[in-house]
């Protein structure tokens, strides 16, 4: 995978994505397309419809046409790459696929979607392979449609991109400036041995350790950290550091610093200021702190001491303008 594959998966089910329609799902359900994690497979596990697959699989077509599935993105934005993964589909994968995208309000039903644009032209596929396609279109999209020719099975589809929130739901309100769904993203990190640092910005509560950020054990006397580009320039009133599910590997303490990158470079160490001083943390606990500072900031650095993990980071505050 390219570096584009490190961008958030805008379609992921745990980020609010939904497979809202499909032409057929006779052998395996359409919802599997956007499940988190890689597809699993156990040979010789047969159900009433045949071998059980962790993916979307249509029947063998005996008439002209092709199969398709429509996904509503959990986090609308600019799509940078599409991954079509045919893992475990070896004799029943589609030989070709294409992807279209459109923009619509969330309340639109699948049959009301219009203005589809092709973002991945029809391309050949292989069995049991993850195919990555770069996307050049820089429009904001809310839905994608996967077309397979003529039929077959696809294990997963990943839609990597940059979140572009609707400013109508951010301006003038108290919002989570560090939320992935509001456009925040981790731009630097000391370590991501066990899981992605962007997990700490994900929607909802982490259900287990894998849904948070966890680093390797440090043996050098230093500490781990990450830097978050916020949804936009703003002020933060409440910080939440959540160590839920981290029973024996939560950090001993943590600190937050901030910077206004409109006035200084991130490399300027003197421009960073304290948002939350180094504070002791407890395992498996949601820690909430009211903050007194009213200095504008665009980026926040989270330092954890010395290592460990965090389930979620929330920074509630107000935007000073439109999202970045």
TrEMBL record:
Protein EC: 3.5.3.4
Q: Which residues form the Allantoicase domain?
A: 16-163, 183-318
Q: Which UniProt keywords apply?
A: Hydrolase, Purine metabolism
Top enzyme class of this protein? hydrolase
The record, for Gene3D superfamilies, names: Galactose-binding domain-like
Xref: SUPFAM superfamilies = Galactose-binding domain-like
Q: Does the keyword Zinc apply?
A: no
Catalysed reaction equations from the record:
allantoate + H2O = (S)-ureidoglycolate + urea
Looking at the keywords, is Hydrolase present?
yes
One MF term in the entry's GO annotations: allantoicase activity
Functional pathway: Nitrogen metabolism; (S)-allantoin degradation; (S)-ureidoglycolate from allantoate (aminidohydrolase route): step 1/1
HAMAP family assigned: Allantoicase
Family membership:
Belongs to the allantoicase family.
NCBIfam families this protein is in? allantoicase
Write the protein's name.
Answer: Probable allantoicase
